[in-house]
């Protein structure tokens, strides 16, 4: 059995979201993401995105139980053509989280001095941070915060470019 699917799946609990995907195409929505790994005051950051997974069909039940029974599957080739990227699962203190946090802090501490460089740096940091996800962490569902093993999700994301 292959550890990953050849397809990318998006699931939702809301049939209207699925109908919208089928009639209007895939439109990113803001999603709250665990940001405990970044040295900021907020526990969550929101990014516009649409998430997919490439878990094998044999593991799909647990995923649909959590995210919803309505879904669409597309080929990985479609995903690559449309600039989807697998997330970087990074434990606290890993190279990816240290580098991203360092860049984040530099940008918001007032360096570099030139506004254009700062804007460009900001865009690059945003692109990097929006693709990093902790191996495990918290997720907000409605008014509840739950603990989740994110690494099992095999997540891919479409993040619109600025």
Structural summary, described in words:
This protein has five helices and ten strands, in the order βαββαβαββααββββ. By secondary structure, it is α+β, with helices and mostly antiparallel strands. It starts with 6 loop residues before the first strand and ends with a strand. The mean pLDDT is 85. The chain has a four-stranded antiparallel β-sheet, with no helix packed on it. The chain has a two-stranded antiparallel sheet with strand order 1-4.
Give helix % range: 25-40%
What would you call the shape?
Answer: globular
> How confident is the prediction overall: mean pLDDT?
85
Query: Main sheet, how many strands, which sense, barrel?
Result: 4 strands, antiparallel
Short précis:
This protein is α+β, with helices and mostly antiparallel strands and 162 residues long. It has helices at residues 15-24, 60-67, 76-81, 95-108, 115-129, and strands spanning 7-12, 29-34, 44-53, 70-75, 85-86, 88-90, 132-134, 137-141, 144-148, 155-158.
Write the SSE topology:
Layout: E1 7-12, H1 15-24, E2 29-34, E3 44-53, H2 60-67, E4 70-75, H3 76-81, E5 85-86, E6 88-90, H4 95-108, H5 115-129, E7 132-134, E8 137-141, E9 144-148, E10 155-158
Parallel strand pairs: 6-7
Antiparallel strand pairs: 1-4, 2-3, 3-10, 5-10, 8-9
